[in-house]
Amino acid sequence: MPYKPSLVIYYLFSALDTIGIQIFSGILYVYLLHYHFSMMQIGAYMSMFWLISTFTEISGGIFVDKYGAMTSLILSYCLRILGLLSLLFPLGFYGLILGSLFSGTAESFSSGTLSSWIITKAKTQNTLIASTQKITSKNAIISTLFSLIATFIGTEILYNIDKKLPLFIAVVVYSILLLLTIPIFTKEKNHLVNDNSNTYKGSSNTLKELKAMIKNFINYPFIWILLLASVIVDIGPSNQWQVLFYQNNRVQGYTIVLFNLIGIFTNTLLLKVSKKYQLFLENYIYQLLILDIIIILLISNQILNKDFFYLHVFIYGIIMSKIFVYLNDEFINESKKRTTILSIFYMAQSMFTSIFLLINGYLSEKIGFLNTWSIFSFCALVLLLIYMVNRNKNIKRS
Q1: DSSP class of residue 251?
Q2: From CA 16, how far away is CA 301, in angstroms rounded?
Q3: What is the dihedral of CA 271, 276, 277, 281, to 10 degrees?
Q4: Which of 265, 155, 224 is nearest to 387 (CA)?
Q5: Distance in angstroms (rounded) separating the CA atoms of residues 287 and 388
Q6: What residue spans in the chain does CATH classification 1.20.1250.20 cover?
Q7: Which residues contact 198 (CB under 8 A, 6 or more apart)?
Q8: How far does Cα 261 stand from its chain's mean position?
Q9: What is the CA radius of gyration of the chain?
Q10: pLDDT at 319 (0 to 100)
Q11: 1-188, what's its fold?
Q12: How distant is the alpha carbon of residue 94 from its chain centre?
């Protein structure tokens, strides 16, 4: 298939996938609460999703290399539909966990499959317009646009007509993707990146390098303390904001639109500000995180109005962006190890998220979600202050 039609297919599939997820993501937490799942059970569901998608990520990549994009996408869309059906027709807690297994595996088998397919096609056909940056940037714009539209329609319109309707539409969208995949990708050839013998010859060396990188990563407390504290403070807000903004038996669709617009504004601002201010943000990233923690503490104790949550979204977006920049520009010295080190970072982030989701769900059930936010924020604040005091002592000694 020529490159240009393939690019259209890529953007079409990405847009439909975004719609399929975002049409229900803004109401999922309150939807599960409506069907009498406890916060502890919802936390377990989300935790299992993170665990499964993390540990099947590598096997998903190997599967794509061996069996091709079509087989991987068909499997992913089938599993995604099963996961959605488990939510659409809830069969109790164990049915919910089974659904998280389907959805988590589906995520790992589709993540990166389409982008890898189109970039490989662009490179092999030596097209002049084949720029990875252009492809990904344009796709990000398209995805953001469809995300805004889908989340607004799902929360503000569909959920208020029928609580199951957003999930039903998601099933329809993934069914369409499944039906489109077979005729479009049937003629695509499957290319193996490496044969099995070459793959497994280097496995022992790769494991040794991986262990060395993990040890090296642990030796940089600046990174993992920042990562741990940021996950702790945001684990409740990022998953339970729907409960905070739930009014008159409905989720406000405008809230999600504002979140997306804040994200766009934050990324645009970081691109536009001068290097002087970029360095300022990097040097004071701990202080910025402490400010964010204080905001969540004040919101959770109902001292600040919940509208200040938008400020948290803005500040937290800056923090996560600067962590990513630091990882790429300062921490990672060798480009050939970049993907592996970033994988270690994201795996650590996923593991922390999975663990704290369980704890968050349990405490939210026992003492309420706002009190849980308060406890988590306080723990993150203490962790950061202890580290900063010790770091200043070490600097003075040296």
Answers
A1: E
A2: 40
A3: 100
A4: 224
A5: 10
A6: 1-188
A7: none
A8: 17
A9: 22
A10: 85
A11: Growth Hormone; Chain: A; (1.20.1250)
A12: 24
Are 174 and 19 in contact by the 8 Å Cβ rule? The answer is no
Q: Which two tokens stand for residue 51?
A: 């665990």
Dihedral class, residue 177 (left if φ above 0, else alpha if ψ from -120 to 50, else beta): alpha
Buried b (16+ CB within 10 A) or exposed e, 190-228: eeeeeeeeeeeeeeeeeeeeeeebeeebeeeeebbbbbb
Question: Tokens standing for 228?
Answer: 């741990």
Ranges of the chain with pLDDT below 70 = 1-3, 57-62, 64-65, 111-112, 116, 119-137, 187-220, 222, 247-252, 271, 273-283, 324-346, 394-398
25 Cβ partners below 8 Å, 6+ apart? 151, 154
pLDDT for residue 170: 96
Name, in order, each residue with C-beta under 8 angstroms of 90's C-beta and a sequence gap of 6 or more: 32, 35, 37, 96
Q: Which residue has the tokens 């089974």?
A: 98
Confidence (pLDDT) at 130: 47
Backbone angles phi, psi at 58, to 5 degrees: -70, -45
Are the C-beta atoms of 39 and 163 separated by less than 8 Å?
A: no
pLDDT of residue 190: 46
The tokens describing 6, both together, are: 């393939």
Q: What is the DSSP string of 16-47?
A: HHHHHHHHHHTTHHHHHHHTT--HHHHHHHHH
First to last CA, the chain: 62
The helix or strand, by DSSP H or E, that contains position 332, with its residue range, turns out to be none
In this structure, CATH architecture of domain 202-398 = Up-down Bundle (1.20)
**Which tokens go with 126?**
């030596």
- At 133, which amino acid appears? Q
What tokens does 268 get?
């645009």
pLDDT value of position 261:
85
Partnered with residue 251 across adjacent β-strands are: 246
Structure tokens at 293: 């923690």
Q: Could you tell me which of 314, 318, 323, 278 has the C-alpha nearest to residue 296?
A: 314
32 closest CA partner among 78, 76, 96, 126: 96
Site of tokens 């982008």? 115
